[in-house]
Amino acid sequence: MRAPIVFTGLALAASAHGLNVLITNDDGFGTANIRAMYSAMTELGHNCYIVASSSDQSGQGSRLIFTNDATLKSASEFGIIASGSPSLGQDPHDDHIWYYNGSPATQILVALDHVLPQHANFSVPDLVLTGPNYGLNIGPFLYGISGTLGATQTAIERGIPAIAFAGAYGKHTAYYDIQASTSAGLQDPATIMGRLAATLAQAFIDKASRANHTFGGRVLPLGYGVSVNLPLISSFTDDSCVNPPFVRARMTGGGEFTSKAVYDSATGLFGSANYADAGTSMCINGDCSLPGETEVVSGCKSSVVLFTIDYDAPYGTSNLSDPYAALLPDIVQLNNATDLVGGLGVNASVQGSAGSSNSSSSASTKSGAGRVMLDTFLSRAAMVAGIVVLAMAL
C-alpha cells in the first residue's frame, strides 16, 4: 500500500450560490451509493432532494410505471419503510429524501409534478443527478435498458440538465452499512464514488457559471446529457484504484456489446448473454478518435460521454463544432494525456476515519466481497481484447 496522501484544493469548492438538485436512481432510495452522492452534493452547499424508488427497479429503461396500490404491499428495500406504508412518502430521518413505488423514469415525473412543488422550496431543479448505479451502464445497448439512464433521459426531455453515474461494483448495500473506514483503512467505495460524482458535477457547474452567457445559465444546453462510468473502486482491500481520473470517451467503440438469446434445453427456457457486434462500435456522430467506454473503465479511469436526445441521423454541422471542448470541464481529460489527474484531485485523501461503527467481521466480509467484484471486473475487462464476454449488471 502506498504512503498516505494529503488532500489539496483541486477538489472544487461549491459555487457562491448552491443549486437546486434532484437526485434519483434505479436501485432504490436507501442504497449506499445514492445517499453518498446526496451527502457529497449537500456538503458542497447545494439544496438536494432525493426522489427514488422504494425498491430495486433496475433494467426498466424509460418505462413509465405508476403503482396501482396506495400502500406498499411489501417492505421497501432493506426494510427502511414498512409494508402497508403509503406508496409515496418521506424517509423517516430526512425530509429531503422521498420514495415512490414506481419505475425510475416515473420518479422524475412524480418529483417534478408533485413532490418538489408541494414539499420543497423550488419546483424545477437546476440539475438532475442519477445513480451511481450498481453495475456499469456501458454502450448503446445499456443506454436503452438502464433505469438510471432512463431517468436521466426523462429529465432532459423535461428540459433539465442531467448527469448519470454508474460504477463497476454491483452488490447493493444499504446506506447505513457505509463504513467510515474499510479493513484497508480507506473510505468506503460508496463514499468515494459519491465524492467523485459530486466533484465532477461541481466542475460542470463551475464551467457553466463561467460561460453563463453561452448556455443561458444552464449547466448543459437543452437536449444534452452526460453518462459517466466509474471503474471498480478498490478501497475495500487496497488503494490500487481509489482516485480514477475522468477521461473523454464515446458510447460506441471497442468492447461495447449487445445481447443474444440463449436456449437452455434442460429447462426449455431462454436467457440472455452479451454479444459483440459491429453495430455497437459504429461511429456516426461525435469524435471517432475517442476510446469507447469499455476500453476506458478497463483501467482505473472513469469514462465521461456526452449525448443528446436527438436520435435523428446527422445532417449538416452542429452549432457546437467541438461539444467536448465547449461543455466538458477541464477535470475531464484525454485518455492518452501524459499526466492524468485523479477525479478527486491531486493527492486527494481517501483515508478512512476512526470510530467506524461496523465490526471487524463485517469489514472483513465486505473486503472479501470487494475482492470477488475485482476479480469479476478484471474478467469483464478482458472483453476489450475479445477474450471473454462481459457480464455486467444493468
Automatic annotation (TrEMBL):
Q: Does the keyword Hydrolase apply?
A: yes
Its keywords, alphabetically, are: Hydrolase, Metal-binding, Signal
Record's signal peptide: 1-18
Q: Which InterPro entries match?
A: SurE (IPR030048), SurE-like_Pase/nucleotidase (IPR002828), SurE-like_sf (IPR036523)
Q: Which residues form the Survival protein SurE-like phosphatase/nucleotidase domain?
A: 21-231
Going by the entry's taxonomy, the superkingdom of the source organism is recorded as Eukaryota
SUPFAM superfamilies (alphabetical): SurE-like (SSF64167)
| Similarity field | Belongs to the SurE nucleotidase family.
Protein known as: Survival protein SurE-like phosphatase/nucleotidase domain-containing protein
